[in-house]
Amino acid sequence: MAVGTFRLQAACTRFSSIAPATALHRFPLASSLYSHGLHLGASVSCNAVQQQVQSTTEKQQKQETSQFQKGQKKVQQESVTPRSQDFNMWYLDVIAAAELADYGPVRGTMVIRPYGYAIWEAIQNYLDAKFKETEHYNMYFPQFIPYSFIEKEASHVEGFSPELALVTIGGGKELEEKLVVRPTSETIVNHMFTQWIHSYRDLPLKINQWVNVTRWEMRTKPFVRTLEFLWQEGHTGHATEEEAEEEALQMIEVYRKFAVEEAAIPVIVGRKSKLETFAGAVRTYTIEAMMGDRKALQAGTSHNLGQNFSRAFNTQFLDSQGEQQYIWQTSWAISTRMVGGIIMTHGDDMGLMLPPRLAPIQVVIIPIWKTDAEKETVLAAATSVHDQLKKEGVRTKVDASEQKTPGWKFNFWEMKVFLSDFHDLFLLIFVW
Amino acid sequence: MAVGTFRLQAACTRFSSIAPATALHRFPLASSLYSHGLHLGASVSCNAVQQQVQSTTEKQQKQETSQFQKGQKKVQQESVTPRSQDFNMWYLDVIAAAELADYGPVRGTMVIRPYGYAIWEAIQNYLDAKFKETEHYNMYFPQFIPYSFIEKEASHVEGFSPELALVTIGGGKELEEKLVVRPTSETIVNHMFTQWIHSYRDLPLKINQWVNVTRWEMRTKPFVRTLEFLWQEGHTGHATEEEAEEEALQMIEVYRKFAVEEAAIPVIVGRKSKLETFAGAVRTYTIEAMMGDRKALQAGTSHNLGQNFSRAFNTQFLDSQGEQQYIWQTSWAISTRMVGGIIMTHGDDMGLMLPPRLAPIQVVIIPIWKTDAEKETVLAAATSVHDQLKKEGVRTKVDASEQKTPGWKFNFWEMKVFLSDFHDLFLLIFVW
């Protein structure tokens, strides 16, 4: 039995981009893996083990590389159109092959599968913490909005009415007033704000909700544009115009930072043209990203709503001078479209590549054995490494299923989680 | 300036139920508060400070008690009907006074306000971790279900058809097939499971989703029964009947443990009668709790679905002997109704009482000052204590707003978060 082979794809970005050899010294985990090899192997010095493992790694890598190339070719032939060949087809193939999403039974709807949803959860975890740090509170508004609400703000109804889904029957009876299935919540938010806000003491009011929204899109594309999608929508009310503008800018900066630092997507922050401004807003700020096909993707927006909705819904407060004033508002959103943006920014001909901080799985351990005796030793080692990595906060999976061959697993995981751009995934292969 | 006054309502349950005096020694935080007082006060020994503070506390408590009683009477008169007088009215009053929820514009809908939503988030945090520990993956199914799906399982359509909300217009056009707004997801889940499950290797398949659901209820009550509510729904597919039964029992046990240990609600685990079994299930397990009005509340259910849905949707797999078999299934859910259960179990005449582990705020610090010089010292002390408590993982709020009097704050927070039953909230009052 060999001591062990690890294919270390450099270290985590949090230890900066460093070469594998250096990583062994700088990344305590990597060292502990070597010690672990030593423990299972023979009594050689740590340096010797490192050298041994390194040389094994080099030799092994050649074999693996050819195995991977063979596998990838097979995967490509079978399922993933190369990105360079047909970007749109590649995008759909990657989503299917990496099991990120599937088509729902209703045209334009999408089932977000566990691996795709885990990316969304990582997005949620980061943003939710940032919203709370900036003193926004989560809450929940009903998704059914009386049709008359939508009509109250002129440009809002103009923008949204072609995209509405309407509930007309409830509990077996025709409804007196049609209900709009939430396309966005400014109207119902203002209806409630009007009841909650009375004086300047009630301001600012800063809330957020994580919900599903429905827009009857005709041309749909998984994650990018679907009939129903998930998002967060922040809504705030302020006493002054300046404060609202400051809030809108603060939130687009939260989005920019998220896109660049977490999703590793370079974005340009800017202001939307009049035509592309949100229906009901005074100004819309946006982060725009360039996808692998060189097309731009609107990845997040923050709106200064001015007093448009407060005037339509009569949302007033008594200022400190005792005067009635309309509140100043903002709203801002990031949606599951971001998952599409991540795929289209980082993926390559081979399949999906995920930014390490959002990757649901950062390390995959594929144990390899022949005999039952080997199995026991190898699985114990795999579990032990898994536990060490987990303890260090690395999201790790041992794929020990016996129904698939290691070759199949390499190809599958390579396509699903590999992050060669970021040097932030380890693929550890145990050949004991 | 006095050294400082703390009204310590005993220690956290995690330090067990112990008297305040003991708590000072056993709970390092409490000691550090005294040291803090010492630091701000004069050079007296720690014991002396303890005695001083304790005696101050006793004297102060009388004043506070009368202040509280006065305040509570006022609050009761103004807003909260005593529980002993009219349970239903009390329930609605508490929800309004503690700002947990409000009525939405559409009959039977509910806006969950930040304080109520934070309780739901605490429920989610605990359960989501447990679901992941038991290897369930989160995902998302579309909320629009073709009407024909609902009709496929006979008892399912019978049970749910009177409660459906139907979308009949989308994008300005009458739809060819009505869409059901998700009342529960067994049908769409099975539609997808049929595509994903082919062989025994694909089983078990264990998923969960956190979503909104709609049931057109005629008699509604905030949290307990609303037209739209939030819940999690777990769905699993198994190769054998035994495995499905084991899963259904495992999940009702997760719910029981949650109810008892986190929500501090005693529950009885049992099996629903034929009449109350979920529409489409073979067996429904339930946790039933007794509310303050001695009525039972169904607080969570776990269903063994047998092969009812797999036969209706033709969800088959090739077993290890090469035979086609229908899968065995479960589903299980806990909803925002749990928030109602918490209110109705723990609240008293004075208002809301929350189980400490789910309380969004466990400690409220109300600084009191007269002069500007006092203000600076008091706020610095309050912030310092806040930071120490936060570091210890205690959810703490400093209410330093100058627009409300301390008396108003006592009453407000007493009603909103006080936990006298559990001896798990500190109300710290700084009178420097």
From TrEMBL, chains A, B:
Q: Which SUPFAM superfamilies does the record cross-reference, listed alphabetically?
A: Class II aaRS ABD-related (SSF52954), Class II aaRS and biotin synthetases (SSF55681)
Residue span(s) of domain Aminoacyl-transfer RNA synthetases class-II family profile: 107-355
Keywords on record: Aminoacyl-tRNA synthetase, ATP-binding, Ligase, Nucleotide-binding
Instruction: Cite the CDD domains for this sequence.
Output: ProRS_core_arch_euk (cd00778)
GO function terms (MF aspect): ATP binding; proline-tRNA ligase activity
This protein's GO CC annotations:
aminoacyl-tRNA synthetase multienzyme complex; chloroplast stroma; mitochondrion
Return the Gene3D superfamilies for the record: Anticodon-binding domain, Bira Bifunctional Protein, Domain 2
Q: Which domain of life is it from?
A: Eukaryota
Which spans does this entry mark as compositional bias, Low complexity? 57-67
Region span, Disordered:
57-80
Q: Which GO terms describe its biological process?
A: prolyl-tRNA aminoacylation
Q: Which NCBIfam families does the protein's record reference? A: proS_fam_I
This protein is called what? proline--tRNA ligase
Species this chain originates from? Ceratopteris richardii (Triangle waterfern)
